[in-house]
Design a protein that fits this description.
This protein is α/β, with parallel strands linked by helices. The chain is about 40% helix and about 25% strand. The protein has helices spanning about 15-25, 55-65, 70, 110-120, 170-180, 255-265, 265-270, 275-280, 305-310, 320-335, 340-370, 375-390, 400-405, 410-430, 440-460, and strands at about 5-10, 30-35, 50-55, 75-80, 80-85, 90-95, 105, 125-130, 130-135, 140-145, 155, 160-165, 185-200, 215-220, 225-230, 235-240, 285-295, 295-300, 300-305. It has a seven-stranded mixed sheet. Strands 8-2-1-12-19-18 form a six-stranded mixed sheet, with helices on both faces. The structure holds flavin-adenine dinucleotide.
Length: about 475
């Protein structure tokens, strides 16, 4: 089969624009259709996930498409979490005990713009903005669009159509509406939503709090986090229930109530957010959910990728990283099966599905960890020990967080299995006071490894994967 096949990609977000770039590099004719205007010429991000944590899996994909040197100047390294308690005391919990392991705060808009510009450099790529996909005829392989500028309806056919159109994917909707095959799907929303606020730069354009950390104000039922931006500001995200608890999005309806909430729960943050009223009442409240579905493809014609196939909650900072990693896995599989799309899609799904299911579950685990457990004394002790183990045994010991975030050679499913057992082992040993920190660190490593292996063995006997 010729490499000149026409590939249509719905959605020019992070995943769609990187996929377009990669497929163009492979010589395909690519049409990229995006519902929104061109973000390089219009400001469309206000109040919606302005910055993201970019880590090793995402960086590996960026490296594959050859734009690392263009992306790195926009990255702000964050070496750990900086926790703020209710009294305003802070403590740091590093992400890793190894040197050189950190995550990066990066502007979503800048990264998306870079990818679009790189894709557009290829003559075989055409990008169409303001074209919203309204559905796909999955039998005929025709995608239907509504043009926001001309108001026209368009029908575009292609050899292969990818749905990279995010959590509300039009292609995914067509899969279940057309009922051509057995399509399983679930969408589970959290009871919490999110709202973005801002800590502006100081008068010298500098960051008011450490830019080397991801800040967390954990409060059990809700939390605030902040990631640094290059202009000296921080994007702050409040995660809060829609309707449960004393304070929730539904009852925070006046500035007095919002101020009372921040004064009592986040007093140090309140002092840093001068425009709270305007931002709280004008920025949208976003929903958070997990999408799982199966299969991801229909025949050798259409396929879901990125959030369209597996949207996850943002608490592991892995949604974009996983979507970028999708493209690495897809590229490897395409290399083996090029010319046979059905075989490619099947092999890709087999290689990838267990891992995206795992990161979805890990992201939910981290939701509880970040808003609650990070302040728990056992949890703090566990993280301290993990840092010491990683420092002493950089080639042997990897915490769950390290496996997920810094070890792209360990897939998510394996990281989840070993990481969960290891967490349980450490917490058991700490709670049972079986770890004597005055003993040499090698003895502690042996203890943790033995307990972890015992748990993994028990899980195997119990039939847990
Ligand atoms: C609050 C928040 C914080 C996050 N933080 C992180 C983080 O720190 N690290 C991380 O790795 N991930 C993070 N994520 C997840 C990350 O945003 C997503 O996983 C990532 O954006 C997925 O990329 P995508 O291209 O698949 O989908 P999207 O980014 O959603 O892009 C989909 C694109 O398709 C377009 N589109 C949608 N419908 C249509 C249609 N019908 N027709 C045409 N175009 C359409 C959209 O306009 C959009 O441009 C976060 C998410 C949220 C909500």
């Amino acid at each position: 089969m010729s490499k000149k096949e026409h590939i249509l990609i719905i959605g020019a977000g992070l995943c769609g624009s990187m996929l377009a770039l990669r497929m163009a590099q492979r010589g395909y004719k690519v049409s990229l259709y995006e519902g929104r205007p061109d973000l390089r010429t219009t400001n469309i991000s206000a109040g919606r996930s302005i910055n993201l944590a970019l880590s090793d899996r995402g960086l590996r994909a960026i490296n594959m498409v050859g734009i690392t040197d263009k992306v790195l100047p926009y990255c702000i390294p964050m070496y750990g979490r900086l926790m703020h308690d209710i009294q305003g005391n802070t403590f740091v919990s590093n992400y890793s005990g190894r040197e050189g392991e950190y995550i990066n705060s990066m502007s979503r808009g800048t990264l998306n713009a870079l990818l679009l510009t790189e894709a557009e450099k290829h003559v075989n790529v055409n990008i169409h903005f303001n074209k919203k996909c309204t559905g796909v005829d999955i039998e005929k392989n025709v995608a239907k669009f509504k043009c926001y500028t001309s108001k026209e309806k368009l029908e575009i056919s292609a050899d292969v159509i990818f749905g990279a159109d995010g959590a509300g994917s039009a292609l995914r909707k067509s899969y279940y509406l057309e009922k051509k095959f057995l399509f399983s799907h679930s969408q589970n929303f959290l009871t919490h939503g999110y709202k973005e606020l801002e800590i502006p730069a100081d008068n010298n354009g500098k960051h008011r709090i450490s830019k080397d950390h991801l800040h967390i104000w954990p409060r059990g039922q809700y939390m605030l986090i902040a990631l640094p931006n290059l202009d000296g500001s921080f994007t702050v995200t409040l995660f809060l229930s829609y309707e449960e608890g004393e304070y929730n999005f539904n009852n925070l309806t006046t500035i007095e109530k919002v101020t009372e909430f921040f004064e009592s729960q986040f007093p140090d943050a309140l002092a840093l957010i001068p425009d709270l009223k305007n931002e709280f009442f004008n920025n949208p409240t976003g929903a958070l959910g997990t999408v799982k579905c199966y299969p991801w493809y229909y025949e050798g014609k259409t396929m879901l990728i990125g959030d369209a196939a597996h949207a996850i909650v943002p608490f592991y900072g892995q949604g974009m990283n996983a979507s970028f990693e999708d493209i690495i896995v897809f590229d490897e599989v395409l290399e083996q099966h090029e010319g046979d799309w059905k075989a490619t899609f099947k092999a890709y799904q087999e290689a990838r599905k267990k891992d995206t299911d795992a990161i979805a579950d890990l992201a939910i685990d981290n939701y509880y960890e970040m808003r609650d457990h990070v302040a728990n004394p056992f949890f703090k002790e566990k993280r301290k020990l993990e840092m010491e183990l990683e420092k002493a045994f950089p080639d042997t010991y990897f915490s769950k967080y390290s496996m997920v975030t810094f070890n792209e050679d360990i897939n998510y499913a394996k990281a989840m299995k070993i990481g969960r057992a290891q967490d349980k082992a450490l917490l058991n040993l700490i709670a049972d006071k079986e770890i004597d920190t005055s003993r040499d660190i090698k003895t502690i490593l042996d203890q943790v490894q033995k307990e972890t292996n015992d748990i993994l063995e028990e899980d195997k006997i119990a039939g847990l994967k």
